[in-house]
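Q: How would the structure tokens look for this protein?
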Amino acid sequence: MGTIFNLIILGFIVWFLYQRFVPVKGIKNINAAELKAVLKNRGNKQLIDVRTPNEYRGNHIKDFKNIPLNELGKRAQELSKDKEVIVICQSGMRSSNASKALKKLGFKEVTNVKGGMSSSANKRGFL
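A: Here is the predicted structure in token form.
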């Protein structure tokens, strides 16, 4: 009986890790250097920063709109589902969660900035 319980727990842990770390299909990941190139020729891409308003006020990238992660569900209608959305946060964790949420809401093209505002590439002046 204990072995079955242990297998169930192990299965749950594997499932949790899989859900947490495997990229969601349809979400593109870019780094800060790649973001700089995208921003030079951004076309009609939608840029959102999912950090808190205080973090955003302290430092943000021009043209990024602040939609905090905890408000994304109720403010997603401010974005077009037919245009690419590029999402950034401080470290890349919240933007990853926001990217997954946007895909579930039916957004076709979602791009997450890995490493976010605190990435080493950003600190070297790429953004």
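The chain is about 45% helix and 15% strand.

The longest helix spans residues 2-21.

Upvote if useful.
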